[in-house]
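Appendix B, Record 12. Input sequence as logged:
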Amino acid sequence: GQLVESGGGLVQPGGSLRLSCEASGVMFNYSAMGWYRQAPGKERELVAQITTDGITLYADSVEGRFTASRDNAKNLLFLQMNNLQPEDTAVYYCKAYFGGIWGQGTQVTVSS
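Logged structural output:
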């Protein structure tokens, strides 16, 4: 199985980005999914989780600003990120809990 993230980039503080994660060869419809991030010099941390039927859970640091969603028909996972701040700068990864599969990551940089 494979997960491929996209949608990262450079954005100014207060801006928005939408990350996507495309799954192939993954039991996507049967798997809870997660978004994680890793900033330089820090450990990878959970950002958001979403169950197979769309129930979400967020880290306190992103609650109210980030929204995870999924399209089971298209094997796609999304992370809408609003009001981005410099501390959100990190490489963002998606993960399929069924099988423990990670994507390669996409860089998000928030800077003026």
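The chain has no helices and eleven strands.
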